[in-house]
Amino acid sequence: MAKFLEYQGKEWLAKGGMPVPKGRVASSPEEAEEAARWIGGPVAVKGQVQAGGRGKAGIVKLADTPEEARALAEEILAKTVKGLPVEKVLIEEKLDIKKEYYCSFVINNAREARCPMLMFSTEGGMDIESVDESLLFRLNIDPQYGLQSYDAIDVCTQAGIAPADLSKFASFLTKLSKLYKKYDCQTLEINPFVMTGDGSLYCADCKMEIDNSAVFRHPDFGIKIARDLPGQPTDLDVIGWGIEETDARGTGFLMNMGYDEVSPGYVGYHPIGGGSAMMGLDALNAVGLKAANYADTSGNPVAAKIYRVAKATLSQPNIEGYLLGGFMMANQEQWHHAHALVKVLREMLPKKPGFPCVLLLCGNREDESLEILRTGLADMMTPDGIGRRIEIYGREHVTDTKFIGERLLALCKEYSAEKTSQKAG
Ligand code: GDP
Ligand code: MN
User: Fold this and answer.
1) Mind listing the pLDDT tens digit for each residue in 331-368?
2) Which of 188, 221, 254 lies at the terminal end of a domain, its last residue?
3) What is the mean pLDDT of residues 62-73?
4) Where does the secretion signal sit in this chain (predicted)?
5) For residue 106, what are the β-bridge partners?
6) Ligand nearest to the CA of 6
7) Ligand 2 centroid vs 354 CA: distance in angstroms?
8) Is 100 in the pocket of ligand 1 (CB under 6 A)?
9) Which domain holds residue 385?
10) Using one digit for the tens of pLDDT, what is the confidence trace for 127-156?
11) Do residue 214 and residue 70 come from a single domain?
């Protein structure tokens, strides 16, 4: 799912007419101080990462002065939460919170429902899984007509909202429900939304996730990749998404794995299918090699798609080898992989003579596939040919992660020694 950070979600909520605290995002302590000055008065400083439980993680804090906001921003921007660096903080007017509530709109996938569903609770602010079931109220929403005021009032009444506040809550929830639909959300969770001292309701937090299949309808969102990503998309992520987005024939997944181009030991990683990918990582981990990227060409993709994934994988700068990890007896016809790899390696290896490539391909049409690889690459695989470090394996090594890892490592060592001696000579 394409997820928004809190500040982005709140921007869209505000544009849709929802009450959101006055705020501004900042990327540095200086910007944070400036934002706090612009707001005037006490502020909340909130680290922006794609993770819940930020309060507990110590990246939601309150400041009385702009100077204090600056210091807190500095502290929060230096943190990493659940592996994600905090790159931005949201500076918001501090709310005078009287009570915190929970609401979310999600898709109810139950067979008899298959519709959006509202969840509402008066126990806001905490992890919703820890709220007692009896205090969480659910309502399926007719996708045709949307959330009706009388239904919202009904839910709020059950939850114990005071009669005088019912129309205020119903109006808040129905407005939110319209935005849920308008923005094609998969999830829209406001935890907490709060009532302030003067009785107003505000969205104090926002988790907005857009349905991947609908991202194209919202160019304004500026979502480059309609897929769940841990952080900002890298160039490889964008290339990978371009392959997937334009060709629906099988999977051609490709994404960055936190590849750091300067440190040694990274290889281009091209597993076939999820199970295979795990075994391939075992193979690499066992010998101390690292995957620069994650890929997956399964679901019987055509050779053209596999070719694009393999080419992008092999084009990563400074990788030391390439692993085609078909550690499973695939049901797809593997000769598409064989054709794709012959074309890619014939194009790429003249630029990287002697580059290590271990190709493991098993499963349907295996014999034909290995034959395509061997004959297609034969002239390059001579002892001093540009493909001299290509090794091709089939079913006899289908689960042999240790062997495959060791072969790749041995080739990588040879290659790096060769490069060093070339430089010296
Ligand atoms: P989460 O922990 O990642 O869900 O982050 P939230 O945005 O939900 O913030 C956690 C808690 O911080 C909320 O439940 C509030 O109690 C508190 N909080 C967040 N924003 C404000 C604010 O503007 N004013 C006050 N007083 N408390 C806030
Ligand atoms: Mn929250």
Assistant:
1) 899 999 999 999 999 999 999 999 999 999 999 999 99
2) 221
3) 98
4) none
5) 117
6) 1
7) 53
8) yes
9) 235-424
10) 888 899 999 999 999 999 999 999 999 999
11) no
